[in-house]
Design a protein that fits this description.
The chain is mainly alpha-helical. The chain is built from 19 helices and no strands.
Amino acid sequence: MHITVGTLQGFVASSLSLPTGILTAAFLSRLLGPVNYGALTVAASIVVWIEGAITMGFSRAAVKFVAEAEDWRSVSTRFLQVQFMVSLGAAFFLAAVAPILASWLDTAELSTYLRLFSLGIPFYALFSIHQSILVGRGLFGSRAFLIATYWLIRMVLIFLFVGLWPSVASAIMALIVSYLLVFIGARFFINPTLLGNSDLSFYNLWDFALPIFFYAVGISLFNRLDLFFVKGLSGTPQAAGFYGAAQNLTIVPALFIASLSPLLLSKLTQLCSQNQKESAKAMIKKAIRLTFSLLPFAGMAAGAATEVVVVIYGQSFSSAGQILGILIFAALGVSMIVVSSSALIAADRPELTFYLILPIVVLAFGAHFMLVPRFGSIGAAGVTTGLSWFGACCCMLAVYRVWRVRLPVSTFVRSITICMFAYILASKWQTPGLLILLKLPVISMVIIIAITLFGEFSGDEIAFVRSIFDWRSRMNQNKGKFV
């Protein structure tokens, strides 16, 4: 129950990125215009890739090591030291290669934006590793509070900075200050020392974390590669802005997985250390089922994609609708990869995560290079979606080999059937303007009812979910857990 409550807490906190992100995107796209918004999106995508690459590997390893450790402070100190050094190196590297990237993408001002962004990388990395330490210790509520605080501060500062000084640089400064503030806030919850000694050797840390680090580099690159190729090869100045706008709206599956995967890894690590392999298998199966069951919601989003884009960004961004209708399925495929990777890491097979993602990235380079010049943004979205599901299938096969756990055929059939129905309903039911805010919740309820009536969830599972919302008992159980 703890992991389910923690996942819901994290998902609710991360879900603040949806309204705040939509408001921020609408504000920035209208104030900056397609060209400048596209430049901001490309710069942010490069930085997000770097941040993901340098934090995901250490974050996953930190969750596992802290969950297993008797002296969590000593382990946390070593991870904090390594993450800080790597983040400084990444910041200097980005500042050095910024002119080269700007030249390749044919956007001179991108060099300035990237160098400005580099100042925030260490703050983001330190905030990220603090979150992982909290998860490793089972303090899911504290992590959720920090995530919620970040999204609110981010929105307020962007509105303030860009409102006073409308420019890409002011938006970047708002993001950097947001990272700094939430990092300071994280130190109030948990404060491992940066300069102390640690019983965890650098060798043991790197031996486990290095393949996860390369996996993180690969999956972060895969997630952003399409936008880079659209910017560099499409030949249309607005194309990157449209593509980035669509990409930003694929956030819901990412939010769910960002909430679930670290908690899943923490709990699986504990179960494995206690030799409760059957309980671990049952948890992996539920996580895979739950993630794949999001497919009907992706179908709904695809059917209503153009309406959503027009309401959020305005009529000038309507071209992003078709792109969103494809990319939303890519986001779910990547989610399946992330969940499967958590199961492999918990089984002490981190090297498999890198071996599985490497061919996907190589194929993506070749496919984008061939298809983007010919088919533009649609070609890029198709490549990303196809390869994300190919990677998901490979990762689920690896999970079956290691854990003997697979996606139930019944879940596969039900989810695809309901997905097709949701897509048809969303595309045929046209709603003008803000009525989309009524349409999407109604279709979501129809999907939930259909999933329940089709028997996807057992009576015990439904009762379990209901018990989660007994907030009085949870508050009594959680008293005294604040650090």
